[in-house]
Automatic annotation (TrEMBL):
<feature type="compositionally biased region" description="Basic residues">
    <location>
        <begin position="465"/>
        <end position="474"/>
    </location>
</feature>
<feature type="domain" description="Cell envelope-related transcriptional attenuator">
    <location>
        <begin position="189"/>
        <end position="373"/>
    </location>
</feature>
<protein>
    <recommendedName>
        <fullName>Cell envelope-related transcriptional attenuator domain-containing protein</fullName>
    </recommendedName>
</protein>
<keyword id="KW-0472">Membrane</keyword>
<keyword id="KW-0812">Transmembrane</keyword>
<feature type="compositionally biased region" description="Polar residues">
    <location>
        <begin position="480"/>
        <end position="491"/>
    </location>
</feature>
<dbReference type="InterPro" id="IPR004474">
    <property type="entry name" value="LytR_CpsA_psr"/>
</dbReference>
<keyword id="KW-1133">Transmembrane helix</keyword>
<dbReference type="InterPro" id="IPR050922">
    <property type="entry name" value="LytR/CpsA/Psr_CW_biosynth"/>
</dbReference>
<feature type="region of interest" description="Disordered">
    <location>
        <begin position="448"/>
        <end position="491"/>
    </location>
</feature>
<feature type="transmembrane region" description="Helical">
    <location>
        <begin position="118"/>
        <end position="142"/>
    </location>
</feature>
<feature type="transmembrane region" description="Helical">
    <location>
        <begin position="20"/>
        <end position="38"/>
    </location>
</feature>
<feature type="transmembrane region" description="Helical">
    <location>
        <begin position="44"/>
        <end position="65"/>
    </location>
</feature>
<feature type="transmembrane region" description="Helical">
    <location>
        <begin position="77"/>
        <end position="98"/>
    </location>
</feature>
<comment type="similarity">
    <text>Belongs to the LytR/CpsA/Psr (LCP) family.</text>
</comment>
<dbReference type="Pfam" id="PF03816">
    <property type="entry name" value="LytR_cpsA_psr"/>
</dbReference>
Length: 491
């Protein structure tokens, strides 16, 4: 028996180590090349066919079922399947490469050359494995992030119909909260409060903003035994001053106000009830963003470009029209690309104007972030985004609602109209922040939603040509009802 045969190697018609390595490299790209060159045509063509099926199938799925794949990407079970599939595919690919080298390697190689060639094959295998392992890890991180943000242990929202999630839910009302609390959230002041009312069929959305300094307002019937004359200061030590932004703290510090909910949930649910009573809507869910961690999200996505209407101070403090503490810097007027820290100040600064202009800026900032969420940036900075999100976003949206929400969000971004209703005394006649006119608030909310549900016909393209960036219109442009298109607010 020949020496090569004694070792279990059948001589093959491919001479030279470098050629063998070249065929191995080619087989890493096109399965079966080395097998065909070695005369093992059946195995080689079978491997080629399998690769074509895998690549063609993946391309077909990616092109034909994009929307379905987006919905699958937010389901924990499917993410586990994808993670396992990626790891199996990595193992299979490496096995094909190693076997390809085995069928074409020359016999009788010296020990040093054999060791060197195996090292090169191992390095090639590692290079092949890396993207699959990275993708599997990213998928796992996504599943872990979704499970942390959407734990599914809060059943306060409407019951979800799996086959028709929007059945009997013509509009989805989500309370968007921006707070400044720490990790335990017990001391949060919600300085940003906006209700997103979304038509579940068309995606048309109304953003209803309420000022933080709304005071002495009516409360729901079940709370009137506590606050018969409207929300008032009930504990000076805790700083309750009758303002809307302290309702969260009232709920967290007084479990009896929101029975049945644990710490971290009482505040948002009390706000859902109070704000829903003010504007006449049933709030389905809430999303709370800790503004301290918000800057990490903006940094992870590479910053955000906004239009700054006028110079805004960073930090500082004004009392009676004078700075008692000087700003540490300024955001210059004009189009600016902001990092997380500056984007946070763009959204929270009010010393240069007032709370009501700040409300407009916050909505514009949300719109700019959504518009600029580039998929490539999201993928390349995914782990940073995921880490920031788990520390920043808190919600009672159930995981089961994520797939239909992803589908609905595609409708919103594909051309649906977004209008803004800001409760500001500068924009709405007869509205004041102290003891506000609740019937007026409810009428305007109903009017804005009705207008969004039945929008006016879109003007001809020639009538809507505008510059890509225009000055933000934060002056009162709709004093009769306060509702304007977000495009008019943000330019």
């Amino acid at each position: 028996m020949a020496r090569g045969q004694a070792r279990g190697h059948r001589p093959v018609p491919v001479a030279g180590l470098w050629r063998a390595l070249g065929l191995t490299l080619a087989s890493a790209v096109v399965w079966g090349v080395a097998h065909v060159a070695a005369g093992r045509r059946a195995a080689g063509f079978a491997l080629m066919g399998l690769l074509v099926l895998l690549v063609g199938g993946a391309a077909t799925l990616g092109l034909a079922f994009q929307e379905k794949l987006k919905q699958i990407a937010v389901q924990g079970t499917w993410l586990n399947v994808i993670t396992a599939a990626l790891l199996v595919l990595a193992l299979v690919w490496v096995s094909v490469v190693i076997r390809s080298y085995q069928v074409v390697r020359p016999v009788g190689l010296p020990t040093a050359m054999r060791a060197a060639s195996m090292t090169l094959v191992a390095v090639l295998s590692l290079i092949i494995c890396t993207p699959f392992v990275y993708a599997a890890n990213t998928t796992y991180v996504l599943r872990d992030t979704l499970s942390k943000i959407f734990p599914g242990d809060d059943t306060s929202g409407p019951k979800i119909n799996a086959s028709d999630p929007w059945k009997n839910i013509p509009r989805l009302n989500v309370l968007l909260l921006g707070g400044d609390g720490g990790k335990d959230r017990s001391g949060i002041r919600t300085d940003s409060m906006t209700v997103a009312s979304i038509d579940t069929h068309t995606g048309n959305t109304v953003l209803i903003s309420l000022p933080r300094n709304l005071r002495f307002f009516q409360v729901p019937a079940r709370l009137r035994s506590i606050w018969p004359n409207g929300y008032r200061n009930v504990n000076a030590q805790l700083g309750y001053d009758g303002m809307l932004n302290s309702v969260y703290l009232s709920g967290e510090k007084n479990p009896s106000l929101v029975p049945g909910f644990k710490a971290g949930q009482r505040g948002p649910h009390l706000l859902e009830e109070v704000i829903g009573n003010l504007i006449g809507l049933k709030i389905n869910y809430y999303v709370l963003v800790n503004l301290g961690g918000f800057k990490d999200i903006v940094n992870a996505m590479g910053g955000v470009t906004v239009h700054v209407e006028k110079a805004l101070p960073i930090g500082g403090e004004i009392v009676n029209g004078r700075y008692t503490k000087q700003p540490t810097g300024w955001l210059k007027a004009g189009t600016q690309h902001l990092d997380g820290e500056k984007a946070l100040w763009y959204g929270r600064s009010r010393d240069a104007d007032d709370d009501f202009h700040r409300m407009d800026r916050q909505k514009c900032l949300m719109k700019d972030i959504a518009d600029q969420a580039d998929p490539q940036k999201v993928v390349t900075h995914f782990e940073k985004l995921a880490k920031a999100a788990t520390k920043t976003i808190f919600t009672n949206l159930p995981a089961a609602l994520l797939p239909p929400l992803v589908k609905l969000s595609g409708t919103v971004k594909s051309g649906s109209d977004i209008t803004s209703l800001a409760f500001s005394p500068y924009k709405i006649q007869g509205f004041g922040t102290d003891d506000p006119n609740v019937p007026l608030m409810r009428r305007l909310t109903t009017k804005a939603i009705t207008a969004s549900t039945h929008p006016k016909p879109t003007p001809s393209p020639t009538a809507t040509v505008k510059k890509r960036r225009t000055k933000r219109k934060t002056s009162p442009t709709a004093a009769s009802n306060g509702s304007v298109s977000l495009k008019n607010v943000c330019g």
